[in-house]
Amino acid sequence: VMAALAFLLLYTKEEVYPRRKAVLSWEKTRTLLDDRLFERLEAVELTGPRKGIAEEQKLEAVKPMAFPADWDETKAGEVAPVFEVLYTLGQAAFNYRMADIEYRKAQYAKAKAAAEEAGEEFTETPPADLDDDIAE
Question: pTM, whole model, 2 decimals?
Fold first, then answer.
């Protein structure tokens, strides 16, 4: 859950995981809970295209971390009240980003259909070419 939030905020893999490890550790994770986290929350742009992001920062990789099986707000709250807030925040950020992507894809499809209907050439760049989070 913390990794999902961190990757949505464009932290790097090196900032999230211990060196040469693929599993999170509390020692490393707790270093994320600092003023930089809140600065990144304030500055992050969840809408609009994201190009050049790392694989672990893509929504496809973040989704299983943001929505772990057999977890919900109640279970997150049992860990700690602040963890429930972070859990909910990560899911809200993910859903907001997904909604923006779906909106941009729908706008593109609508503009393309209108151009075709009018018999006009459609030259707008496909959303998948502009955003690494959009799979073709």
Answer: 0.88
